[in-house]
Amino acid sequence: MMGCVCMKLKRFRYKDSKVLASQTYSKPFSYEDPEVLASQTYFTINEVEFLHELFKKLSSSIVDDGLISKEEFQLGLFGNSKKQSLFADRMFQMFDTKQDGVIDFGEFVRFLSVFHPKAPQAEKVACAFQLYDLWHTGFIKHEEVKEMILALLKESDLILPDEIIESIIIKTFEEADSKRDGKIDMEEWKELVAKNPSLLRNMTIPYLKDITTMFPSFVLKPDVEDSSNF
User: Fold this and answer.
1) Which residues on neighbouring strands pair with residue 183, listed in sequence order?
2) Which run of H or of E encompasses 217?
């Protein structure tokens, strides 16, 4: 029941995308060594260098300081740096692994790597679990799921009666909470995903497999079109 937090990839409509795709990257690399990043992720060196161009676009969209601020992150997601979004907040927190309020290039590449088609399912499972663990307790609780659903519905200008939302959550916990303790731990989450592989369908961005020719967008957008899944 994870359809409420789908992440759809949109192509970034840069006018110079074709130019970027044909560039040779002879400029000094001002961030982490691309060879190191390639060895730690599922991207090739060329793909890391290409991601650097995308990163520069985002990190200079408001202040050209080589870091992606929360406002720049929201601008990349929604085209609006002031938009309030629980989804954007959670994604920013997950990119910002150092928890210093900004995203550097290494964090940007390493987190995107989880969405690479070559990334193992175990990484995607853990990432999806983390997205719902709003309170960082190591568990997914009823209140967290409801908060996420309500936020996504609001952001999409959709309304569902509270009793329907509650029934969705109750059904989910009946299936997932095998220990009957009112929360879903990682073990239970893995079992739920094993029975419902479609829960991870949005944890893979196909364009990342061929980024140097497709030039994907950074836009990851929440979707609530399938309210049967949370």
Assistant:
1) 141
2) strand 216-223
